[in-house]
């Protein structure tokens, strides 16, 4: 990326909409990160470290080619819709969990106040492409999460937005955010909500890691989750095998059908053994991986 291109980047909102909320914050605007006590300093190293902690979704960017398995393009839905679907909205400070969901839970990261400051955006975010694209992705997701005043009230109650902000301020600010082109958005944020169980599966298959984020914190809940699916499969297979056995007991069945039933029973048995062997290997692998992490 050339130096000239850096100067072409601009915050996705006008400077007049900078949401600095009090005189103390305005006085400290050039010396520390908005909304924090972190000093900016001459090198800006503190700022970049903070932005990495608050915004980095690099682990999801590395699997962006497979994220279609876990979500849809631009698949964001507002907060009131999440409540309509009886989902628990859980505040998560880890940016890698933002808008990941499983069962009836969805994680949402609070919007960092520094993303609402025009001058900070120009000086600390625009010069860095990776930070710029992730910041635009977060803003774009929030423009969809908070579309109505009811969404705004939910966000305020959960502490997702700075407490000083009013609905009219947010509505005027968010009006400009949907204009962000997809080319300016991190690859993770080109997708909306992601199913956590499928992200875990992607990491397990394509990254050779047992999970992206461990949903279950004990083996009992993990066995209940994993073996529930296996029991359903076993029940369906049992019905099919019983039907084949009944067919073989009839006197008018042809030789071709008998051979077909024979091979079907062998293939089904082999598939069941392979699946259970895979499950057992997964259990051993997760146990050894957990032991290794604990010892290291």
Keywords:
single chain, 296 residues, mainly alpha, 4-stranded mixed β-sheet, disordered N terminus
Task: Give an overview of the whole structure.
- Strands 1-3-2-4 form a 4-stranded mixed beta sheet.
- A hairpin with a 2-residue loop joins strand 2 and strand 3 (105-108).
- The protein is built from 12 helices and 4 strands, in the order αααααβββααααβααα.
- The model is unreliable at 1-7 (pLDDT under 50).
- It has helices spanning 3-8, 23-27, 45-55, 58-61, 79-84, 118-125, 129-145, 149-158, 167-174, 196-206, 219-249, 255-295, and strands spanning 88-91, 100-102, 105-108, 194-195.
- 53% of the residues lie in helices and 4% in strands.
- The chain is mainly α.
Short recap of the structure:
The chain is 53% helix and 4% strand.
Largest sheet: 4 strands, mixed
- Computed over alpha carbons, the radius of gyration is 26 Å
Mean pLDDT value: 83
Low-pLDDT windows of residues? 1-7
Which class do the helix and strand fractions yield? mainly alpha
Tally of helical runs: 12
Record field, number of beta strands: 4
Helix-strand string:
HHHHHEEEHHHHEHHH
Residue share in β-strands: under 5%
Task: Itemize the secondary structure elements and their pairings.
Blueprint: H1 3-8, H2 23-27, H3 45-55, H4 58-61, H5 79-84, E1 88-91, E2 100-102, E3 105-108, H6 118-125, H7 129-145, H8 149-158, H9 167-174, E4 194-195, H10 196-206, H11 219-249, H12 255-295
Parallel strand pairs: 1-3, 2-4
Antiparallel strand pairs: 2-3
Helix pairs in contact: 11-12
């Amino acid at each position: 990326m050339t130096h000239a291109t850096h100067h072409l980047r601009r915050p996705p909102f006008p400077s007049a909409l900078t949401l600095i909320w009090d005189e103390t914050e305005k006085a400290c605007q050039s010396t520390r990160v908005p909304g924090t006590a972190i000093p900016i300093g001459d090198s800006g190293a503190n700022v970049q470290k903070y932005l990495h902690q608050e915004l980095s979704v690099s682990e999801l960017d590395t699997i962006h080619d497979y994220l279609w398995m876990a979500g849809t393009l631009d698949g964001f839905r507002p907060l009131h819709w999440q409540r309509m679907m009886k989902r628990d909205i859980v505040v998560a400070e880890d940016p890698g969990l933002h808008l990941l969901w499983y069962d009836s839970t969805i994680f949402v990261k609070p919007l960092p106040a520094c993303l609402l400051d025009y001058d900070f955006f120009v000086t600390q975010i625009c010069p860095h492409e990776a930070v710029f694209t992730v910041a635009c992705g977060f803003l774009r997701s929030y423009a969809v999460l908070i579309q109505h005043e009811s969404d705004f009230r939910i966000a305020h109650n959960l502490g997702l937005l700075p407490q000083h902000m009013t609905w009219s301020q947010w509505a005027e600010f968010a009006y400009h955010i949907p204009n962000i082109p997809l080319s300016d958005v991190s690859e993770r944020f080109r997708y909306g909500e992601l199913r956590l169980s499928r992200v875990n599966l992607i990491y397990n298959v394509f990254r050779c890691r047992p999970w992206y984020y461990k949903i279950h914190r004990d083996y009992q809940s993990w066995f209940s989750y994993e073996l529930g699916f296996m029991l359903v499969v076993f029940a369906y297979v049992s019905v099919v095998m019983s039907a084949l056995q009944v067919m073989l007991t009839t006197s008018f069945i042809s030789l071709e059908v008998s051979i077909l039933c024979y091979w079907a029973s062998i293939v089904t048995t082999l598939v069941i053994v392979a699946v259970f062997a895979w499950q057992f290997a997964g259990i051993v692998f997760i146990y050894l991986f957990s032991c290794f992490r604990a010892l290291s």
